[in-house]
Amino acid sequence: MPFGWNSIILKFSGSVEGISIGNFSISGVGNDEPIEISGITRGSSQNDLVVIFNRQINPGNRAILKYIPENKEICIGYLPGDVNGDGVRSPNDMLAFIDALNGQKEFPIYSTDIDRSGIFTSADNLAFIDIGNGIYGDWNGKSLPPCKCTDDLQCSSGYVCNEGTCTELSGSPIFIDGEGLLVNLIRILKVI
Ligand SMILES: [Ca+2]
């Protein structure tokens, strides 16, 4: 059964040993309650860090994870059947999925492993068809909200759009001194 991500693996330039949960913040875009970070842990290599959320991102919503020391934002979202990852569920995703099945195009595992078995097989075709038939809600023609907000209405309840970022109305901003951190965030390895 398809579901949204509840963790993300980040690749850094060096050991992630000195990175703490306080080095991250998270906000949401969409109508859902934003997800929270519940923990971080080292990944399979010393340069990989797994950020674990308190729950799965609900379909049709986004989360913006910020690595505070570098002011880097990672925008993730989950839209059922959005195989090509453009944030829109359209007939192009069917073409992309067929290309993937035929081995003509490669997509990240999280785009094509639709039944979440951990591998991409022909069984994912059934899950893809189920999504197209509306078994998990009608997502055809739907889009994810933009990564950068332009209006308060795009942010979750209790959040306002502040310079493109959905910011919590109350509570002081978190400031973490990033000095001394020797590692840089390079790229997202995988969303799980
Ligand atoms: Ca798409």
Write a structural description.
This protein is of the alpha+beta class and 192 residues long. It has two domains: 7-78 and 160-191, Immunoglobulin-like (Sandwich); 80-143, Type 1 dockerin domain. Helix content is 13%, strand content 28%. The chain has three helices and nine strands. The protein has helices spanning 91-101, 109-112, 123-132; strands at residues 7-12, 24-29, 37-42, 48-53, 61-67, 72-78, 159-162, 165-168, 185-191. A hairpin with a 2-residue loop joins strand 7 (159-162) and strand 8 (165-168). The chain is globular, with a radius of gyration of 17 Å. Bound molecules: calcium ion (CA). Calcium ion (CA) binds at residues 82, 84, 86, 88-90, 92-93. Residues 82, 84, 86, 88-90, 92-93 line the site of calcium ion.
The beta-strand count equals: 9
Q: How many angstroms separate the termini?
A: 14 Å
CATH architecture label name of the largest domain: Sandwich
Alpha plus pi helix count: 3
Low-confidence stretches: 170-183
CATH class of the largest domain: Mainly Beta
Q: What composes the largest sheet? A: 4 strands, antiparallel
Strand content: 25-35%
Domain count = 2
CATH topology of the largest domain: Immunoglobulin-like
Overall pLDDT confidence: 81
Oligomer: single chain
Strand order of the largest sheet: 3-4-1-9
Derived from helix and strand composition plus strand pairing, the structural class reads alpha+beta
Task: Give the proportion of residues in helices.
Answer: 10-25%
